[in-house]
Write a structure and sequence with these properties.
single chain; 526 residues; alpha+beta; 4 domains; 14 strands; IstA-like_C; RNaseH-like_sf; IS21 family transposase
Length: 526
């Protein structure tokens, strides 16, 4: 007999047929019968929660033949406990122990087939069918949530998408979620690292969907897929294996789909109306929501995800390695005249005396390490999110920029801005003044003067004047947008006039009032 109480609770949660069958192991016919009963009797979640076992039995009577008292009843609770604690314990072992049991009680014992049927009924009526579908500590199911959350940059006003990575342990249902700026390989791998650290260990296998960051086809049109190299390196580091979900096999990833549905309702549904300005701020809010999902939400069997995880799964996870996995890449970068190197559109300072030199830069998920040959120069936390951010160490800056030949200075940019006009000078001064360390603004000033103003001095001056008049926040992007608007307005404001004739017309008398013109007779005798 199916657990109609648990099915009813899942129906009120809005779960789909596939989700309920995946969680409960019941048939679609049984779910349909529950829905019809709810509609016919106008049941609500509140009324069903207050119902007694007798009322449930009356609502969904068991019409099958009762088990005869002539049979000795097996200890199904003990068998289930053995299966949960020992992943190698089988139902056949439980039956053999039952048959071999010496009992003073009179009666017969069930055959293996009937024993299995009764055990399945016992499991269904005790809301633990999901326990048997997944071994504890064996699998971690991972996927991206389909919906995103917006992250607004307070400086530029740019709105970026926050992509939510979701990982779930299908045995206990424990869920991990975090937001990332993209769904590229580095974010994908970093999300797995954080998920393993969240659960405090690694599982025997990882089950991803067939995302491009997980697997790829070696031959176009071939159904065979190969795990991405960097993803495989991560799996080997954590002593786990990547086993992608089969295509068109929704049951392979039913727990992941259920977790994503929970994230959509309990995280995105709660946070979508808020304004988030950084990914750190957004992830802090997501972490609070995850505490409620894992620690406070009770499931059909009365336990929380975290309680079941700590009781039956945590100790079965593989221990984490001594060092976390990190993807490393190397670049040869030239130090700019503002004594910063630029990697992935972010800027990192070095001692100013290294300006103009080529340095070796090591990029990992969390740090940027800079070397001069084999000598370590400095290390910065890696920037992410909005492009053009600066990481500047105060000791790297010179005391007086203008005393160092070849370096940009405030006077250097102000002098160049004067050739454009007073509004451009004002904008350059605003950009220089707002930086904690003045040199951080040098590259922005250079881009504005040499890129936007290279062949458009007048339009750049007009755009700067608009910024000054409106008391705006000048950036390269803002000025470029205003200049494009000015260009569009000029194109529309030119009146349409007929093209001038190529034939020259002789000037009329009115055109030359003070000129004496000789007639043709004057030239006849010459």
């Amino acid at each position: 007999m199916a657990s109609y109480k648990a099915i009813t609770a899942l129906v009120f949660e809005g779960r789909s047929y596939d989700e309920i069958t995946g969680l409960m192991g019941c048939s679609r016919r049984e779910i349909s019968m529950v829905k019809k009963t709810i509609a016919a009797r106008s049941l609500t979640a509140a009324t069903t929660a207050a119902m007694s076992d007798e009322q449930w039995a009356e609502l969904f009577p068991d019409k099958r033949r009762s088990v005869s008292d002539a049979f000795i009843q097996p200890d199904f609770a003990g068998t289930l406990k053995s299966m949960k604690s020992n992943k190698h314990f089988t139902l056949q072992q439980g039956w053999r122990m039952y048959v071999g049991l010496d009992s003073a009680l009179p009666g017969r014992k069930y055959g293996y087939s009937r024993y299995c049927e009764l055990f399945t009924e016992f499991v269904n009526t005790h809301d633990v069918v999901a326990t048997l579908h997944h071994d504890p500590g064996r699998a971690l199911l991972v996927d991206w949530a389909g919906d995103t959350l917006p992250v607004t940059d307070m400086v530029t006003g740019e709105i970026r998408k926050g992509y939510l990575f979701v990982a779930v342990l299908p045995f206990s249902g424990l869920i991990f979620c975090s937001a990332y700026a993209d769904m590229k390989q580095d974010s994908w791998n970093n999300a797995h690292v954080q998920a393993f650290e969240f659960i405090g260990g690694s599982t025997q296998i990882i089950v991803p969907d067939n995302a491009a960051t997980a697997t790829h086809r070696t031959v176009k049109g071939d159904s065979a897929r190969v795990v991405q190299v960097r993803y495989q390196e991560l799996a080997e580091h954590y002593s786990t294996a990547v086993v992608p979900a089969r295509v068109r096999r929704p049951r392979d990833k039913a727990a992941a789909e259920s977790a994503v549905n929970t994230i959509n309702k309990r995280v995105i549904g709660y946070l979508a109306e808020e304004i988030w300005t950084t990914f750190a701020e957004l992830n802090a809010a997501i972490k609070e929501r995850m505490v409620e999902i894992n620690e406070q939400m009770h499931r059909a069997d009365g336990t929380t995800r975290a309680e079941r995880f700590r009781a039956d799964e945590a100790e079965l996870l593989q221990p984490l390695p001594a060092h976390r996995f990190d993807t490393v890449s190397w670049k040869q970068l030239k130090v700019g005249r503002n004594y910063h190197v630029t990697a992935d559109y972010q800027h990192y300072s070095v001692p100013y005396k290294l300006a103009g030199q080529m340095l070796r830069v090591r990029l990992t998920g969390g740090n940027v390490t800079i070397f001069d040959g084999d000598t370590l120069i400095c290390e910065h936390p890696r920037k992410s999110g909005r492009k053009g951010q600066y990481s500047t160490v105060a000791e790297h800056a010179p005391e007086r920029h203008h005393d160092l030949e070849g370096l940009w200075t405030r006077q250097w940019f102000e002098h160049r801005a004067k050739s454009f006009g007073p509004a451009t000078v004002t904008v350059i001064e605003m950009i220089l003044d707002r930086s904690v360390i003045e040199a951080q603004a040098y590259l922005d000033c250079q881009n504005i003067l040499m890129t936007l103003g290279k062949s458009n001095k007048q339009r750049l001056e007009s755009a700067c004047q608009q910024i000054v008049n409106q008391r705006g926040y000048p950036t390269y992007t803002t000025l470029k947008r205003i200049m494009a608007t000015i260009t569009g307005d000029k194109k529309q404001s030119h009146p349409l006039v007929p093209a001038a004739s190529n034939t020259k017309s002789p000037p009329g008398p009115a055109d030359t009032p003070s000129v004496m013109v000789r007639g043709a007779d004057y030239y006849k005798d010459r």
